[in-house]
Amino acid sequence: MQRVLVIDDNPDVGKALQVLLRLHDIDSLFVLTPQAGMDALQRDPDIALVIQDMNFSEDTTSGAEGRELFHSIRQLRPELPVVLLTAWTQLEVAVELVKQGAADYLAKPWDDVKLLANVQNLLELQALRQAQARQRSARIHSRETLAAHADLCGLVYQSDAMQALVTLAVKIANTDVPVLITGPNGAGKEKVAQIVQRNSRRRHQAFVCVNLGALPGDLLEAELFGADPGAYTGLNKTRIGRFEAADGGTLFLDELANLSAEGQAKLLRVLQCGEFQRLGSSETRRVDVRVISATNADLQGAVFAGRFREDLYYRLNVIELAVPPLSERREDVLPLLHHFLGTAGEIEPACVRALQAYEWPGNIRQLENACKRASILRAQGDFCLAHFGIDVAASAPRGRPVVEPSRQMIEQALAANAWVIAKAARQLGLSRQALYRRMEQYDIDAW
């Protein structure tokens, strides 16, 4: 339950405020001294708002005691809104404290309607901030828990979208069912496949990768299922296929849409009963292989067009892991930049903004290659946009605004720079004042 703490040396003021708040179902606590107020804050976590006087000693009108109390509250509970009750003689002090973070000030005698409206608005805002803080803590805890209990294969990410994807990948890893990973080229489908394999019961067995898109059509079947001598011109010895090589482990089939009709039929049989035949052989062989496949194509569209078997599609798509493009998870751009560039140097603020706004049509692969290029071309000083060799203007849709850093991006930059505002601002491509404004907007307190 939210509670309002009233700190005032006048019992009549305290009683009047408590009655007003009680009439509107707002719980309150009244104390007479700053020390009693600080004691209450230390023992009562439900206090969500403070209304404090500016003077507590008889014949004192400077507001110095109120200033000291305000700073003590801010030090103990920096997220707590404070409303100042002030006489006109302390108005300048109250205005100064509002600039330093006080929520508002009200002159005595106060207007009940205005005071009540301020209190209700601040309590609603505080409830929203607390809910956001709980969600943020839950997200951080979820990422830390996942990283502590699962092998994420060095995956670098910050976005909620990737957290949800990786959580699902780890969850289904031990089920041993076929997995279909979809997403654009360069988005990290093979990395997701590795995560599934490394967290499965087959983690210590073979992990065999086949890029079906890199093989000629007439060699696909031999590559997958093997071939006996004489199966095709020039083959003089037995060729072991990838299924046999992966027996007991995991087979990752990339660019699945390139598989021929005959190859699709043989793959379906392996999935159904674990049996296949080498090219040029009538002997049936059995294997125990988990199949993880990936594609950047629209397999459902290929099914409708008759280019891909519907029964095979549903066999492979027991679990689908859809990897979003980098343009849909921009929170990941900054950590990826620092991962690929290492400690080589800082990035100019304008460059950071441009790289975060860029569409990255080639996704993570393009970002990695751009970072390699920048590392080679940069002689000294900070990285600038020219080092990365990308055409930002050609990528961004007309009128598209520069990406605004999210709460996650700001918190990550602050943590990475030990909460040194100047360094975090530079990393985010902002001025110190701009970062302070966004920290205030997101209710992030400087440590």
Automatic annotation (TrEMBL):
Key words, A-Z: ATP-binding, DNA-binding, Nucleotide-binding, Phosphoprotein, Transcription, Transcription regulation
Pfam families according to UniProt: AAA_lid_14, HTH_8, Response_reg, Sigma54_activat
Domain Sigma-54 factor interaction: 155-376
Gene3D superfamilies linked: 1.10.8.60, 3.40.50.2300, Homeodomain-like (1.10.10.60), P-loop containing nucleotide triphosphate hydrolases (3.40.50.300)
Residues in Response regulatory domain copies: 3-123
InterPro entries linked to this entry: AAA+_ATPase, AAA_lid_NorR, CheY-like_superfamily, Homeodomain-like_sf, HTH_Fis, P-loop_NTPase, Sig_transdc_resp-reg_receiver, Sigma_54_int
Top-rank taxon: Bacteria
Organism: Gilvimarinus algae
Protein name: Sigma-54 dependent transcriptional regulator
Residues carrying 4-aspartylphosphate: D53
SUPFAM superfamilies attached to this UniProt entry: CheY-like, Homeodomain-like, P-loop containing nucleoside triphosphate hydrolases
